[in-house]
């Protein structure tokens, strides 16, 4: 069976796996973004606090993803839970780092001007600092998403959702008629989804970042 014939006969299952893959990555990115920005906001004013936040989240990435999922199985079981925990933790570093860099890069004169017109610290953060720090934060989100698209495939090891199941089934049946087709379908599917995600972030940036800041 050719690759295109395989896609034609298995398109329904592939679409289901692709939807699950996108859903898992998107939901984990929402959680990672919220956590990462909060960590950045809490730590960016302190030199040691920012270093601790970046070092801690960077340390997570030194753990092989397969090992991380394997260690979580006895704690949270199989399926969605280890996938969500692993992807969320792995997505933190670029967001935390870029949040800290972006917030520290805001012109102090603008912050002083906001203080001078009576803005509270929370108002300055929400109306001045975070909007100006948004471009690097969005870049961190894009990097995290690309990372998680690939890491999410490993979740199939713990019976997680997504296109990784197609890849693992192909690897487990190497030598059979459709083994290469399965691995290729899962891999190309992840690549296409990653490109679509990145295109969506480019559009989001054009809609949310003023032209002057983009320039």
TrEMBL record:
Q: Which GO terms describe its cellular component?
A: plasma membrane
Source organism superkingdom: Bacteria
Instruction: Indicate where this protein resides in the cell.
Output: Cell membrane; Membrane
Biological process, per Gene Ontology: glycine betaine transport; transmembrane transport
Report keywords, A-Z: Membrane, Transmembrane, Transmembrane helix, Transport
Q: Does the keyword Transmembrane helix apply?
A: yes
Q: Which family does it belong to?
A: Belongs to the binding-protein-dependent transport system permease family.
Q: What is this protein called?
A: ABC transporter permease
> What organism is this sequence from?
Streptomyces arboris
């Amino acid at each position: 069976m050719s690759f295109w014939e395989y896609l034609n006969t298995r398109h329904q299952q592939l679409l289901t796996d692709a939807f699950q893959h996108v859903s898992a990555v998107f939901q984990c990115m929402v959680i990672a973004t919220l956590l990462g920005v909060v960590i950045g906001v809490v730590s960016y004013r302190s030199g040691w606090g920012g270093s601790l936040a970046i070092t801690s989240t960077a340390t997570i990435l030194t753990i092989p993803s397969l090992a991380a999922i394997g260690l979580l199985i006895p704690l949270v079981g199989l399926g969605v839970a280890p996938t969500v925990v692993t992807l969320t933790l792995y997505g933190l570093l670029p967001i935390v780092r870029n949040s800290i860099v972006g917030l520290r890069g805001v012109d102090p004169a603008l912050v002083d001007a906001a203080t001078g017109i009576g803005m509270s610290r929370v108002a300055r953060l929400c109306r001045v600092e975070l909007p100006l720090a948004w471009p690097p934060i969005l870049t961190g989100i894009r990097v995290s998403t690309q990372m998680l698209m690939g890491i999410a495939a490993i979740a199939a090891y713990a019976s997680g959702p997504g296109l990784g199941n197609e890849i693992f089934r192909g690897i487990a049946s190497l030598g059979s008629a459709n083994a290469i087709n399965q691995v290729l379908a899962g891999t190309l599917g992840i690549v296409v989804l990653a490109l679509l995600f990145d295109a969506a972030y480019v559009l989001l940036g054009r809609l949310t970042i003023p032209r002057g800041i983009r320039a």
